[in-house]
Design goal:
about 950 residues; alpha/beta; Leucine-rich repeat, LRR (right-handed beta-alpha superhelix); Phosphorylase Kinase, domain 1; 14 helices; about 20% helix; globular; disordered N terminus; binds 2-acetamido-2-deoxy-beta-D-glucopyranose; nucleotide-binding; ATP-binding; phosphoprotein; transferase
Length: about 950
């Protein structure tokens, strides 16, 4: 028996020894207990925490479990921070007899103070910080282990006072109680007993307002004293001068007063001194021997006198904040020589004289703020020598001269506030550079800067104020995140950039007092967030766009002193303006009723009038005729909309009744032929055909973007193609034209741009199409002069666009009888809606125009250079395969990113692609640099190959659109 017993015991020991560290065997019993206790903890807190989920009863020995540390086989340390524990700390924890260190910080405990821990009698390290413990600290908190050296209760929700018994932990080296909700007293005497203390934090609590207890001066081993924002009053006690080991002294954000004592500047070990946000007065001593100082923040006090020259001795100084005081005199030149200074903030003082001439040359200066002083002279030449500067704030001083050359290439610069100084000279051009620029705020108003702008400003700008300077040249195109752009009273000329869609977030736009000409762009309507617009005092002409009616948050509008003409749009009735000035223009017609308001200024517009029943006597009464015509046109609109809804019903019933309505406009008779239920009138379209609404012009005519409104006042956009040179059509051709257009109008396919109606007169034809928000594909692929591609389309989007347009073409070729050939497939004819879904535009138009005799010359017939197949030109009869060729070129554009017809007559993308393929085969070098992605390279090369096949020389060898579509669908992995 005993033998067997011995053997089995021996075997099990052997087994354990082979698995565990050697020492384990010595305390097997304690170890077994510990093991069970840990399993109990795991059960209690649950296995969902990151560490406990890997604890297990079977695998590794518990001493290797995450968060567990053993000494001689017994658990001595538990470190389970950040485990999302919610359930209270269990009493069983203290059954771990040899536990000396416990870290449960960053969990979600929300009980009162865990007195269960009183039983952990060997604890010397306890960290319960960053939880949600509530209630008062217990009066008998000294029942915790007397061994305690480190107690961290910071960042919880403890309230009340701090009990005096806290002073009984005679071994305590660090005590952290900051960031709670203590609202009573703290035991000055108790703290005074903690003579071993090195770290003491009480900051950010709402303690009773008292001065710093003199007893804190007894804590001679303190290195770290954090007492900010705890309602301290009174002066800094003399006793603290005993704390000669202090490295960090933070008394900021209190109600302290008196002077900053001399001895502080002689604490030899002091590195960080924060006294900001108090009421300290007096001068800063100039006898500094605390030479290790790294950061000094004395901001927001009432300090007087000058900045001590001794600051220039602090070679470790990185940060110097003296802002918001009453300091005077000049900034000591020695500060410019400090080798580590990177952040200096001296704003809101009364400093005068020049800046240290060496500032920026010797240190990695990053932040420089001296606004609101009386400083003068030039900015130091080497301010950005080290290329680290991101903030220059020097506004409201008397600086003069040119900007330092070191700003050229200061490419981290983010914030430049120089307003209200006397700077002169040309503003450094490189700061407007699109490529490297980080600048987001530039406020340089009220100086004498000159210079011009690049066509396009960088994307990062959020605020730009150059008002009251001498900048000249054209108004730059604005881009990106711009919220505020003010350029009042400069010498800017040219037109307001047509495309304002890039700055749809702008809230404040001021271009007043320049020499700007041309119209107000129709795209002004996209500035949905615009609050204030001032373009007064220019030579802006044309009508006021109706689009203003949709700028719902516009409150300040000043268009005065320009050459605007025409009527004030009715839609002004919808605006809620607090300021309006339209005076000194050439506006005419009846003033909308809501604008007949004393507070608005409409004077000096000789043509403006009010209705006879108006009480406004500043304007003439409108003549009856205009009154009558107004009523008449309103009636016509009503009648028309009734008819339109009747028409809609009948088309639902299966008829498409072509109804022609006559309308007189400019002595022409216009006939409208609808193909869909319409929500606008021809009048709405015709009145929108002004130059400022033009979005393009092609061979056959101009294209306009017109804002139309339905009866309910809801607005939307349509695109109108005005075909010119058709005035000489004879009766038969005219009939043919309309018959052809009707065929196109009846086509309904998701990937073909809808032709809504045709409006024709003897002199012109208008084709009204649905409006596509994202314009045409070529805009997104190729940079046009001055207009940047908004952002490269990724491959998934490009493939979707290819598939969509292939579907459209496929339908026209194979779903219609007879097939409809496009004849001018190109990326400019593929339009994108708000979701980047593609539709083919201008279907069949070339054919119609050809028949109507519009396109006579061979070159016009040959489609667009770069997209026309070889057979074009000598073969007058063409078939669908010319569209396949054109589509192949579009696929080449999508994969290579190159333009179809870039450099001169020789270059042609299809030929280039064939040559590359023959010489070098398929290679990723062919693909668009912008979107290269190893995950898609193979697909892109396959589509490139498909494009080569589509652009083959022999029409008969090209695949049909059906085949092309099927091939493309294979790459669609979604
Ligand atoms: C654990 O603590 C007990 C007394 O509390 C002590 O006797 C024992 O030696 C300790 N074990 C280890 C491994 O330190
Ligand atoms: C203070 O620190 C010194 C050196 O670190 C140490 O010798 C001394 O015992 C400490 N004083 C107290 C009261 O703990
Ligand atoms: C600070 O002290 C004042 C009394 O001086 C007291 O009314 C206030 O509640 C205390 N706390 C804060 C946060 O000001």
């Amino acid at each position: 028996m005993p033998n067997n017993c011995y053997i089995s015991f021996f075997l099990s020991i052997q087994l354990l020894l082979s698995l565990q560290p050697k020492s384990y065997a010595q305390s097997t019993n304690q170890s077994n207990d510990d093991h069970q206790i840990l399993l109990g903890l795991m059960k209690h807190w649950g296995r969902n925490s990151p560490a406990l989920s890997r604890w297990s009863s079977t695998s590794a020995p518990h001493c290797n479990w995450g968060g567990v540390t053993c000494t001689n086989g017994a658990v001595t340390r538990i470190s389970l921070s950040n485990q999302s524990f919610i359930k209270p700390i269990p009493a069983s924890l203290c059954l771990l007899k040899n536990l000396t260190s416990l870290d449960l910080s960053y969990n979600n405990f929300s009980t009162s103070f865990p007195i269960a821990l009183y039983n952990c009698s060997n604890l010397n390290y306890l960290d319960l910080s960053n939880n949600f413990f509530v209630g008062n600290l217990p009066d008998d908190i000294n029942s915790l282990s007397a061994q305690l050296e480190h107690l961290n209760l910071s960042t919880n929700c403890f309230t009340g006072r701090i009990p005096p018994s806290i002073g009984w932990f005679l071994r305590l080296k660090s005590l952290l109680l900051d960031n709670n909700r203590f609202d009573g007293s703290y035991p000055a005497e108790g703290f005074g007993n903690l003579s071993s203390l090195q770290i003491l934090t009480l900051a950010n609590n709402l303690f009773d307002p008292v001065p710093v207890p003199w007893e804190f001066g007894k804590l001679r081993n303190l290195t770290y004293l954090w007492l900010s924002d705890m309602n301290i009053t009174g002066e800094i006690p003399e006793s603290l001068s005993n704390l000669t080991k202090l490295e960090v002294l933070d008394l900021s954000e209190n109600w302290m007063q008196g002077t900053i004592p001399m001895w502080i500047w002689q604490l030899k070990k002091l590195k960080y001194l924060y006294l900001f946000d108090n009421n300290f007065t007096g001068e800063i001593a100039d006898n500094i021997t605390a030479l290790d100082l790294v950061e000094i923040d004395l901001s927001s006090n009432k300090l007087t006198g000058t900045i001590p020259g001794d600051f220039g001795k602090l070679t470790n100084l990185t940060l110097l904040f003296l802002y918001q005081n009453q300091l005077c005199g000049s900034i000591p030149p020695s500060i410019g020589l400090l080798p580590n200074l990177y952040d200096i903030r001296l704003f809101n003082n009364m400093l005068s004289g020049a800046l240290p001439s060496e500032l920026g040359k010797h240190s990695p200066l990053a932040n420089f703020e001296v606004g609101n002083n009386n400083l003068s002279g030039e900015l130091p030449e080497g301010l950005c020598s080290n290329r680290k500067l991101y903030d220059i704030v020097v506004f409201n001083n008397s600086f003069s001269g040119k900007l330092p050359e070191s700003l050229d290439g200061c490419y981290l610069l983010n914030n430049l506030m120089m307003f209200n100084n006397h700077f002169t000279g040309e503003f450094p051009k490189s700061l407007w550079s699109v490529v490297t620029n980080q600048l987001s705020v530039v406020m340089i108003q009220n100086n004498n800067f000159s210079g011009t702008f690049p066509t396009q400003l960088p994307w990062n700008f959020t605020q730009l104020d150059i008002s009251n300077n001498r900048f000249s040249g054209p108004v730059p195109s604005l881009a990106g995140r711009m919220k505020i752009f003010r350029a009042a009273n400069n010498m800017l000329s040219g037109e307001i950039p047509w495309d304002l869609t890039g700055i749809s977030q702008v809230t404040d736009l001021d271009l007043s007092g320049n020499q700007i000409t041309g119209p107000i762009p129709m795209t002004i309507g996209v500035l949905k967030g615009l609050n204030a617009l001032n373009i007064s005092g220019n030579q802006i002409s044309g009508n006021i766009p109706a689009a203003f009616g949709f700028m719902s948050v516009l409150t300040i509008l000043d268009l005065s002193s320009n050459a605007l003409s025409g009527k004030i749009p009715k839609d002004f009735d919808k605006l809620r303006l607090s300021f309006l000035n339209l005076s000194m223009n050439q506006l005419s017609g009846e003033i909308p009723t809501s604008l007949q308001n004393e507070t608005y200024d409409l004077r000096f517009n000789p043509g403006l009038c009010v209705s006879s029943n108006s009480s406004d006597h500043n304007f003439q009464i409108c003549r009856a005729r205009s009154d009558f015509s107004n009523v008449l046109s309103r009636r016509l609109i009503t009648i028309f909309s009734v008819l339109a809804s009747v028409m809609f019903l009948s088309s639902v019933a299966g008829f498409l009744i072509l109804r022609r309505q006559k309308y007189r406009h400019d002595h022409q008779t216009w006939e409208l032929t609808p193909f869909h239920a319409l929500h606008f009138t021809e009048h709405g379209i015709l009145s929108g055909l002004c130059e400022q609404n033009r979005i393009g012009s092609g061979r056959s005519g101009k294209v306009y973007c017109v804002h139309v409104m339905d009866e309910a006042g809801a607005g939307s956009m349509v695109a109108v193609k005005k075909i010119w040179n058709l005035q000489n059509l004879d009766g038969n051709l005219e009939k043919d034209f309309l018959a052809e257009v009707k065929i196109l109008g009846e086509i309904r396919h998701t990937n073909v741009v809808k032709l809504l109606c045709c409006i024709s007169s003897s002199e012109a034809k208008l084709l009204v199409y649905e409006y596509m928000e994202n314009s045409s594909l070529d805009r997104w692929l190729h940079q046009r002069e001055g207009i940047r591609v908004p952002a490269p389309l990724d491959w998934t989007t490009r493939l979707q666009i290819a598939i969509d347009s292939a579907r459209g073409l496929c339908y026209m070729h194979h779903g219609c009888s007879p097939a409809i050939v496009h004849r001018d497939v190109k990326s400019a004819n593929i339009l994108l809606d708000s979701e980047f879904r593609a539709k083919v535009a201008d279907f069949g138009l070339a054919q119609i125009l050809l028949k109507a005799g519009e396109l006579e010359s061979v070159s016009a017939m040959c489609g667009t250079f770069g997209y026309m197949p070889p057979e074009y030109g000598y073969q007058r009869r063409v078939n669908e395969k010319i569209d396949v060729y054109g589509f192949g070129v579009v696929l080449l554009e999508l994969t290579t990113g190159k333009v179809a017809n870039g450099g001169g007559a020789e270059y042609c993308l299809a030929q280039w692609a064939w040559r590359q393929y023959q010489e070098n085969g398929l290679s990723v070098d062919l693909l668009d640099e912008e979107i290269k992605d190893p995950a898609y390279n193979e697909d892109m090369l396959a589509v490139f190959t498909l494009a080569l096949i589509c652009t083959g020389g022999q029409p008969s060898m090209r695949p049909s659109m059906k085949n092309v579509l099927h091939a493309l669908l294979r790459f669609d992995h979604r």
